[in-house]
């Protein structure tokens, strides 16, 4: 439903509908009531941009992420905006936070602005607590196309673009074991869809190589360099390799290894995730798994444009990660 449909159903011109939306005194009260009755009947919320721009329509996509201060989120948003502009689309950004209520509110606000589509960045939107946790996305997908980046849910109208995090971590842990590492710690900061896949890859690689999964080697911690360093110092674990679900925690582990006077990579191997600038801001420069933000963003936007054009698009699009070897690993 758009302004053209409202005009047709009301039996007035588009210009008249626009004047009604903007509460113009040039329109009679009788006509205003007729137009508003139609809008209410069809649950039509006037585009806030149309209020200010009259008849000019604006192609707009809503972007949602939990926290734009996080490196992964910030980069993804930048890539998405760049690709959307390529197709002539503007974007509105909402930072929802990580709690359920914030996610629901962010999506509602964007829908109230009559966006053409929505892209959500981060696997936290894939839901942590079952079907009820994604009901708001099911509802949104009935109104506009929705793309979920870096997560997966099976919902009609929600198109998922993600990297194969399971295989990336599985292969990396296998390579660490082949290089002689047996006591491998996994650092993670959340129980999101993405992190769960990484954790599964870690555990399966250990099992498939005849190693026991030790619970104390799975360490949940804040995604922060210094907090990761300090927590490892407190736990005093004996390990010869670390793989983290984000680069910040891996750098924290690297700092802890320096602190206890062990050598990298001779004594301990360290692998991060996301291949951020942190990898080249530490010593030695750190190996990391690249989560392909730029390519994912391009696929997300290209797929969305196809959906808006009425073309067929796969509901799940998954691409491989890339491993960037630097000076903290021996494989």
From TrEMBL:
Keyword list, A-Z: DNA-binding, Transcription, Transcription regulation
UniProt key word Transcription regulation: yes
GO MF term (any one): transcription cis-regulatory region binding
Any Pfam family hit: Peripla_BP_1
InterPro entries noted in UniProt: HTH_LacI (IPR000843), Lambda_DNA-bd_dom_sf (IPR010982), Peripla_BP/Lac1_sug-bd_dom (IPR001761), Peripla_BP_I (IPR028082)
Segment forming the signal sequence: none
Residue ranges constituting the HTH lacI-type domain according to the UniProt record: 1-55
Annotated protein name in UniProt: LacI family transcriptional regulator
